[in-house]
C-alpha cells in the first residue's frame, strides 16, 4: 500500500510500505476512506517531536471501513464505518478508567503517527479498536465526522472545558487556525458575552468571524490588550486560550487574562516559554495544559448528527490520496492558500 512516511525533519514521501496486519487480538485494520493533515504533523516535520523516528507513517485522524478485526474485538465488525480517534485507549489502566485517555498507561494515548504507524495511508492498524474507534451515525458525512478525530474534541476539551468558559464571559483565542476556530465554535455553546480572535493573518480573522468571533484583532495593527481591556472595564479576559504553540502567544495570553481568570494552553510547543510568575503569582490565575482525551467525542457526534454544530465548514481543500505532497504544501502555506483543513480521499 501507499503511505505518507516521515524521513527526518523536513523530509517526507508518499511511498510503498507493507500492508498493516493484526498484531494483537484487540486490533482492527481499517481501510482509510478520508484522512486529513494536522498542525501537529507540521510540528513533527519541523523536528519538534523527536519521538517520531525515520520511517514512521504520519497521521492520527481518519474515517474508514473496518476490513479485519482481531479475535478479541467485540464492538466493531468488518464492514463498519468508523471514526479513528487521534487518541488510542486501552480502556483498563488508571487513566483510562478516569476518562483521561490521552495519558493511557496500557499502550495507548497519542500513538498513531507518533509511536506507531498512523492514518495517512491506504490502510491503518488501530490498536484497542473497541475503545479507540467510534461507529458513525447514519446521515453524517465523512468530512463532518473526520473533524471529530482531533480538532473538534481538542478545541472543546483543552480550550473550552479546561478554560471553564461560562455564560457572559469574555473569551480571547490567540491563534485562529483550525484549533482556534474549534475553540470559538465550542465556546459558543456556553453563551459568552464576547469571543475575541487574535491572529496575524487577516484571512484567518475573517474565518474567525464566520465561526462566531464578534471581535477580531490583528496585532500588527492593533493592541490586543487595549481591545480586551475596553471590553472588560479594564479587567482582562475571563478566559485566554493559546492555540498557536509558540512562546510569544502563550506569554500574550498570560498578559491578557484578568485576575482570577484562566489561561488554557492548547498549542503544541517546541520551545520553552517564559512564565512570568513575578506578575502572575498575586493574580489567582489558573493555567491549564493538556493533550486531548477525546472523552467528549460521543457528545460531539450527537451534536453533529443533530446538525447543532457544523464541522464540514472547516474543509477548504480536497485532494485524492495520490496528491498527499501537494496537500501538505497547501496546508503548510495556509496564510497564502487560506487552507483550514484539507481532506484526502481514496
From TrEMBL:
Keywords, comma-separated and alphabetical:
Metal-binding, Oxidoreductase, Zinc
Q: Which domain of life is it from?
A: Bacteria
Family, similarity comment: Belongs to the zinc-containing alcohol dehydrogenase family.
Q: What residue stretches are annotated with the Enoyl reductase (ER) domain?
A: 8-344
The protein's required cofactors: Zn(2+)
- Which SUPFAM superfamilies does the UniProt record give? GroES-like, NAD(P)-binding Rossmann-fold domains
Q: What is this protein called?
A: Alcohol dehydrogenase
Among the GO molecular function terms of this UniProt record, one is: zinc ion binding
Q: CDD domains, from UniProt?
A: FDH_like_ADH2 (cd08286)
Query: Which SMART domains has this protein been placed in?
Result: PKS_ER (SM00829)
Amino acid at each position: 500500500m501507499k503511505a505518507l512516511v516521515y524521513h527526518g525533519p523536513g523530509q517526507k514521501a508518499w511511498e510503498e510500505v507493507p500492508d498493516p496486519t493484526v498484531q494483537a487480538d484487540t486490533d482492527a485494520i481499517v481501510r482509510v476512506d478520508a484522512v486529513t493533515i494536522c498542525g501537529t504533523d507540521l510540528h513533527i516535520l519541523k523536528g519538534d517531536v523527536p519521538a517520531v523516528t525515520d520511517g514512521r507513517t504520519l497521521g492520527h485522524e481518519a474515517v474508514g471501513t473496518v476490513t479485519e478485526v482481531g479475535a478479541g474485538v467485540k464492538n466493531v465488525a468488518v464492514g463498519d464505518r468508523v471514526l479513528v480517534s487521534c487518541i488510542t485507549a486501552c480502556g483498563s489502566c488508571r487513566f483510562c478508567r478516569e476518562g483521561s485517555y490521552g495519558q493511557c498507561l496500557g499502550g495507548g494515548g497519542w500513538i498513531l503517527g507518533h509511536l506507531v504507524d498512523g492514518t495517512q495511508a491506504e490502510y491503518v492498524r488501530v490498536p484497542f479498536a473497541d475503545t479507540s474507534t467510534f461507529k458513525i451515525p447514519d446521515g453524517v458525512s465523512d468530512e463532518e465526522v473526520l473533524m471529530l478525530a482531533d480538532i473538534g474534541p481538542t478545541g472543546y476539551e483543552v480550550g473550552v472545558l479546561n478554560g471553564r468558559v461560562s455564560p457572559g464571559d469574555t473569551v480571547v483565542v490567540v491563534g485562529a487556525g483550525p484549533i482556534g476556530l474549534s475553540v470559538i465554535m465550542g465556546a459558543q455553546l456556553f453563551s459568552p458575552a464576547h469571543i475575541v480572535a487574535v491572529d496575524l493573518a487577516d484571512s484567518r480573522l475573517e474565518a474567525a468571524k464566520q465561526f462566531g468571533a464578534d471581535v477580531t484583532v490583528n496585532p500588527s495593527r492593533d493592541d490586543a490588550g487595549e481591545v480586551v481591556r475596553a471590553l472588560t472595564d479594564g479587567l482582562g479576559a475571563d478566559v485566554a486560550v493559546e492555540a498557536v504553540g509558540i512562546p510569544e502567544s502563550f506569554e500574550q495570553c498570560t498578559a491578557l487574562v484578568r485576575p482570577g481568570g484562566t489561561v488554557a494552553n492548547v498549542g503544541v510547543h517546541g520551545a520553552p516559554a517564559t512564565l512570568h510568575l513575578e506578575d502572575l503569582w498575586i493574580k489567582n490565575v489558573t493555567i491549564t495544559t493538556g493533550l486531548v482525551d477525546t472523552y467528549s467525542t460521543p457528545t460531539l457526534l450527537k451534536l453533529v448528527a443533530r446538525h447543532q454544530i457544523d464541522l464540514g465548514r472547516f474543509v477548504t481543500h480536497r485532494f485524492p490520496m495520490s496528491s498527499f505532497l501537494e496537500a501538505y504544501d497547501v496546508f503548510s502555506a495556509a496564510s497564502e492558500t487560506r487552507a483550514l483543513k484539507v481532506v484526502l480521499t481514496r
